[in-house]
C-alpha cells in the first residue's frame, strides 16, 4: 500500500463510522476513489473493496448501476448536456451538436488530448432554464448553441 | 389573475435565504421551538389535520404515513428525506434546497421530534453538487447554533440513477447496494432502512412542516383546495414557455393561468399543442384541456395527475412520436433491470417507437405497442414500468392521427420537430465489449 | 415452540389448510395447483418478486400480485392463471417478455429437456413471437471458470445465481453489472469464479445460461440415468445423484437432504468425479519385481501372493485404514485379519469417540442456533464444507458465531453457552480425540441435556467413525502393536498418500497396498491391489452427525471391488465372508446397528436418537498449538506456522485438471502487523525459512489472521518446521 491508498483507506473508515451499517459507505467510498484515480480502474475497485471489507466484484457491481461512476477513463474535464424532453424542446440537440463540432468528438467520447469528455445525460433538474449543461458538475443554465464556443475556449484555457 | 403565494419559499421571494441569521430574521426555527414544546403525537396530529399530502408524486397523506410507523420494535426509527429529484421536468426540490436550506433542516428536526427519531438521512441526487454544498453549510450553521437537539443529520449523495427516487430503491442505495426496489410488504414504516421503521418524505413535504406548525394546521388547511388538495405546491414550469422556472402557487390555480399569466405564454407566436402536467410519467393533456385547475381531484377528472408538479409545455413543433420515443428511451435507460416486464418491455417500446418514427412500422405494430404498454401496466415490481407505459399510451390515445401519419408516410414534421434526432444517453457503462446498445 | 396456527386459504375455488405464513407457492402446491416461478427459491432467502412469472389475483387487491412474495393468511382468496383471465394474461405477458430476448436454441442447449423455461413456454407460452427486432446479443458461451460456462443470451436475469453468491455462499464474486436492459451476470474483470461452492449456480439456473463445462454436450436428458448415492469425499456425506451414461459418470448433482445439505454441494463433491478416469488408474494387480520395478499379475496369482504375505505376517500385521472404506469393507477386512490371522492392530488417521452420540443432532439444527462456537484452527470449509454454509446461515439468522483456537473458553463465553437453549459447538481442528474432548466440554456446559443444543466434530476423513466401529466389531482381542512390523496393509488412497503411513512402511518387511492409482503405491509396496471409488461401491458410510447413509454403485468399476476379492481371500483362512455388501451389513448390523436391515437405510437416511452421555476414555491428549503470542512480544524473528489441508487437495482433486484453479496458491498468509513490520505487502515474493528448509512464496496480508502466526497450505509448506522466519525476497 502506498501513502495515497493509505489515506483513502483511512478516509473510507471515517465515512463508514457515519453509518449504523458500514456498507452504507459504498457510494461515498466509490466517489472518493474516483476522485483519486480519475476513474474506477480495477485497482481503484480493489482498494475500495479492501477498505470496505467487500469484494472488488461487489464494488464494481454497485458502481456499474450508477451513471456518475466512470468504469473507463475520462477526460480531465466533463461536459454533460441534458437531452431530456424539456431541454430538448428548447434546443438541447443543437447545443450538443455545437459541442461536438467545437470539441471534434461525438457524445460519449473524449478529446484526443484527453482533456474533455462529452456526454449526454438524462434530466439534470433545471428544466425551466434549459438547455442545462453541467461543466465539471457545475450547472450552466441556460446554454444556447451560440454560448458553446466560449465554454469550450474556457475549458481549453483552464488546463 | 393568479399570484404566487410563498409558504415553503416564504422569505426567499427576493433572494436566497442561505444564511442562518437571515433565515432566523424571517422567523426561522421558531416553529422548531414551538414543536419541541408539544408532545410528539400532537405534532403528528397537526400534520394530519393540515391535510398535507406527499409532494414527491404519490400524494399520500403525510400524517397518515407517519402514524403507520411501527412502535416498540426495539429498533431505532429513521427519517429519510427524498432529495433525489429526477422526474423529468422537475426541479423544485433543488430550488427549495437552494433558497431555503434551513427550512428543510428545520422540517427534518420537527418531523424527527414528531416520530421520535434520532437519525435523519437526506438522500440528495449526486448531480446536485451546489445544492449539496449549500445544504452542508447550512447544516454546519445549525449544528454550530446547537439547534440539532441530539439529532444526527447525515447528507448522503446519490450517484446518478432515477430509480433511486423510488422509496425502497432509495433505501437499498442508502444501504450501499444497487438501487433496485424491494417488494412491499414489508412497508418502510415497518421494516425500512436497516430493516427498521422508517419514514420517507419528499423535500418539499418536509420543508412544508415548519409552516404548518407556525400557521397551525387549521390555517394551513385553508390554503388551496381543501380537503384533498390543501396548501401550496412549488410547480416546475418548463418547455416551450417564455418564463420557465418554479412558481409556488396554492393548488387550484389553472394550467392556463400558470402557463400564460405567470409563464408568459408560448414564445415565438407558436401554438400550444400539449402539456404534461406532472412530470414525464403522467398522461399528457391537449391544448384544449388547460383550464383544468391544478389540484388532485380536477387532474384525475381530466385523466392525468399532478405527480411531481412538473409542467412541461409543448408547442406545435413537437412530434408526439418523437416525444413518445424520447420518454420511452428515458425509462428504458432508468429501468433498474430487476423485474422482467419493465426491463424487457421498455426496451421493446423503444424499438417499436423507433420503427414508427422511421416510418418502417406497420399498422399492426402500433397495436402491438399499445399491447406492450398494456402488458407492462400493473405487472411490474415498482411503478417505473407504469411510468413508461402510461404516458406513451396517452400520446397514442390523444394523437392517434399523428401516429397513423407516421405509419403511412413517415414523420409529418419533415425534420422540423423540436425533438428531431435528439440523442438520448445510453448506458454509461456499456463499454463492456459484449453488452449491446439498442440501435 | 408451539405449533403455528393453521389457516384456510382458497385457491382457484379449492380450499386448503396450511400453517400460517406458509408461502403461497407452497400453499398452492398443497392444493395441487402450480404457480410457475423463476426467481423464487426459498433457499436463497426472502422472495424478491423479480421475474413476475408467479402473478396471481388476490381478492380485495386490484393489482395482480407476485404470488411468490405472499404468505398464507386466513380467509385469503387467490386465483391463479388457471381460474383468472387477468392472472393468465399477466403470466402470458411475463413469459412473452422473457422470450423477447431468449434464443430459441433448445435443441442444442444442455438444459433442453430439463428446463423450466422450456416447460412453461410449452404449457402457457405464446405460439409464435411478436418480437421482430434484434435480440440482445453477447459472445457465447464464455467461461466464468474452468468448470462453469455462461451464455448471457439465454440468461433471463432472475438473479438466482448472484443471490446465491452474495446471500448463501457469501463469496460476493458472481454479480450483476450495469442496469436495466443492459444488465448482465459477470465476475470481476472476467476473473474465474473461484469459490468453494460455485457449482451450485449451475443447478440454480432455471435456464441453460449457466452450464457445467464437464457436462456440455455430454448427454441428452433421455439418454441418462440419475443414480442416488452420497458423496464420499468428506464427512458430511451430501446426498447426490450421479448422472451416468453408457456406464460412465457424467456429472454429480445434488439430491437435497434438508437435514444434511439443503441441496447444496461443494465443488469438490460436484466436479471431482473425473478422477475415476485418471490416466494412472490401476486396472490390474501389481507386484514388485526385482530390478524391473513393477509387473502386472493375474487376480488368481495376486490372491496367492496376498495369502503368502499374510501367512508370513501372521500376528505381526498392521493395517492402515483410510477412513474412506465403507463400513462393510472395514468389517470384511477386520474379520479376515482379526479372526483369520489374529492380526488386531489397525491405525486410523485419527481417533474416533462415541461420546458425541449424546449431542447428536441434524446439521440443520445449526441454522436455528443463537450461538455457535467453532473450536480449532482449521477452516470449517476445508474439513466439512457444507457445515460452513450452515454456520453462515445461522449468522444470517442472527446467531453469534465465535471462533476460538482451543477449547479454553473465557468464563463469560462459557456462561453464555451453558445459559443458551440453542448453542452449538463445532470442533474444526486436530487433536480433538475424535470428539472426546468436545464431548467432555459439551457435557461440562450441559449441552447434552438440551435438545436444541448440539456438538459436532469435523473428522478429517469421510467415514472414520464407521470404519473404526466396523473394525472394532470384527474381533474381540485388543491390539498388540507388533515390533517389528512384518506386513503393513495399506487400505485406500488417503492412507497411501499419508506421510505417517509411509513412515510405518519403512519399518515393515512387506507392504500390501490397496489403491486406485499408480502414483500412490508404486515404488514402495510389494503387492498392489486395485481399489475402487465411493461412486463404484455398494455400502454404508456414517457421517459426522452419526447418520448411517447408503452408498450405491453408480457405475461398474473397471476392477473387482474390494469385497469380492476379500471374500475369496477369506476362504483361504476359513473365514466366512460374503462378497455382497447387503449380507456383510446384515452380519455387522446385528453387532452394532441393532439389526437394522440394509434396505432400511433409505434414500434420505434418518438420524438415530441421542445416546445417554458416557464419559470417553481419557483421550490421548495430543499437543494443542499454543495461542499466538501478542504482537508486542513478537520480534521480527519467527512466526508460528499453521499448515492446513485445503478443501481442494488430495488424491481425487489432484487428478482433475478443471479443478487445478481451485487449489491453494503457493501463498503464505501473514497478519497485517507482522507484514508491516517486515515491509511486506500482498503480492510480494517472500522466502520462508526454518532450520535447513527454505521456500519461496507469494505473500497475502490478512486482517483476520492473529499476529505472530502464518498460514501455508500443506502442499506448499514442504518440510518447514513450526517456527519460521519470513523475509522479503
Ligand atoms: C420511479 C419513481 C421515482 C420517484 N422519484 C421520486 C423523487 O425523485 N423524489 C421524490 O420525492 N419521490 C419520488 N418518488 C416517490 C417516492 O417513491 C415516495 O413516494 C416519496 O418520496 C414519498 O414522499 P412524499 O410522501 O413526501 O411524497 C418516485 C417514485 C417512483 C416510483
Ligand atoms: S444466469 Fe441463470 S441464474 Fe443467473 S440470472 Fe441468468 S438466468 Fe438467472
Ligand atoms: S429536461 Fe433538461 S434539465 Fe430537465
Word description of this protein:
The complex is a heterotrimer of chains A (159), B (439) and C (729). Chain A has 159 residues and is an alpha+beta fold. Chain A has helices at 3-17, 26-37, 42-52, 56-63, 85-89, 92-103, 148-157; strands spanning 77-82, 116-121, 133-135, 138-140. Chain A has a four-stranded mixed sheet with strand order 2-1-3-4, with helices on one face. In chain A, helix 1 (3-17) runs antiparallel to helix 2, helix 1 (3-17) packs across helix 3 (42-52) and helix 2 (26-37) runs antiparallel to helix 3. Chain B is 43% helix and 12% strand. In chain B, the strands form three sheets. Chain B has a five-stranded mixed sheet, sandwiched between helices. In chain B, helix 3 packs antiparallel against helix 4, helix 14 (320-334) packs antiparallel against helix 15 and helix 15 runs antiparallel to helix 16 (363-376). Chain B has helices at residues 20-25, 30-36, 40-50, 62-68, 92-99, 101-114, 129-144, 167-174, 188-191, 203-215, 217-222, 255-262, 296-301, 320-334, 340-358, 363-376, 384-398, 400-409, and strands at 78-83, 119-124, 152-157, 198-202, 224-225, 229-230, 232-239, 245-250, 272-276, 285-286, 310-315. Residues 431-439 of chain B have low confidence and may be disordered. The longest helix of chain B is centred in the last third of the chain and has 19 residues, at 340-358. Chain B has 18 helices and eleven strands. With 439 residues, chain B is α/β, with parallel strands linked by helices. Chain C contains 19 helices and 32 strands. In chain C, a hairpin with an 8-residue loop joins strand 11 and strand 12. The chains are: A alpha+beta (159), B alpha/beta (439), C alpha/beta (729). Chains A and B meet through helix 2, helix 4, helix 5, helix 6 and strand 2 of A and strand 3, strand 7, strand 11 and helix 14 of B. Bound molecules: flavin mononucleotide, iron/sulfur cluster (SF4) and FE2/S2 (inorganic) cluster (FES).
Record the strand order, biggest sheet of chain C: 15-14-24-23-22-16-17
Shape verdict of chain C: globular
* Biggest beta-sheet profile of chain A: 4 strands, mixed
**Main sheet attributes: strand count, strand direction, barrel closure of chain C:** 7 strands, mixed
H-E order of chain A? HHHHEHHEEEH
Radius of gyration of chain A: 18 Å
- The total strand number of chain A stands at 4
- How many individual helices of chain C? 19
Determine the N-to-C terminus distance of chain C: 60 Å
Strand order of the largest sheet of chain A: 2-1-3-4
Poorly predicted parts of chain A: none
The quaternary state of the protein chains shown equals: heterotrimer
Q: What hetero molecules are bound to the protein chains?
A: flavin mononucleotide, iron/sulfur cluster, FE2/S2 (inorganic) cluster
Which secondary-structure class do the elements of chain A indicate? alpha+beta
